What we know:
The chain contains seven helices and 13 strands. The two termini are 43 Å apart. The radius of gyration is 23 Å and the shape is elongated. It folds into two domains: 1-45, no CATH class; 80-287, Aromatic compound dioxygenase (Protocatechuate 3,4-Dioxygenase, subunit A, Sandwich), CATH 2.60.130. The chain has a six-stranded mixed β-sheet, with no helix packed on it. Strands 2, 5, 11, 12 and 13 form a five-stranded mixed β-sheet that branches. With 288 residues, it is α/β, with parallel strands linked by helices. It binds benzoic acid (BEZ) and fe (iii) ion (FE).
Amino acid sequence: MRNISLDNITTAVLDTMKDASDARFREVIGSLVTHLHAFAREVHLTHAEWNAGIDFLWRAGRISDDKRNEFVLTSDVLGLSSMVDLLNGSAHGTESSVLGPFYVEGAPLLPVGASIVGDNGGERVLLRGRVLGADGAPLAGALLDFWQTDADGQYSQALPDKPEFNLRCRMRTDAQGRYALQTVKPRYYSVPYDGPVGDLLRAGARHALRPSHFHVLVTAPGHRPLVTELFAEDDPYIDADAVFGVRSTLVLHFERRDDAAAAAPYEVEAPFYDVAFDFRLGAAEASA
Length: 288
Ligand code: BEZ
Ligand code: FE
């Protein structure tokens, strides 16, 4: 085409892909091009602004490595990660939420009722409940993988003096589908703020904080894996998550129990917060 103009450039780009054999590719990338062009047109994007965007992507690439992915973080703070979660959630299962960058494979497998407190300070929590299938029946042998910050908002990666799997574990549900974990109350913390995403947040007069949460990955044969988070309802940032991961069904009441009698059945130390949550897994799709 030699007569490219504002009137035909979007069609011209779409036409170049019309023979792509993958119909979903044509739909997704075609729509992306259409929306990108419409966006540039709507805001009348200048060269300086386009350059700033390219520079952002360039810096995101430079700061990313096998431990840090600034592109995922960009998606997180722009709400795209949560948009994809919300679009693809299981109709009858527990709502999903962002995985985040701090998951580590291979945490120790501990028995139901175990403690991951170690030498961490902070308020004690008993997190307990069941894993249920799509029909509501308890699932024995479901695998839960937990990770969280300590009471100062630090993941194990930032604590070289602590054990590698500090405040992390895996656990299989018992014959009644139950799990129970003794831990400490996590604290709100900041997503990485020293790269281009930090600049983006500052330019938008936004903070980088996430309300305190437990991360949980739940798997069971024949069911959809679930990646989710459980939040504390009294967290000061519960309504201001920098990555839009909070869902009202995942906001939990931390019931404080002060006496030894309340603690005895669970063999925890009082005082502690009693937090109950049942996970519900959707059925695996037929093709999965
Ligand atoms: C997290 O919860 O660990 C997290 C999620 C998204 C971005 C950064 C951190
Ligand atoms: Fe987190």
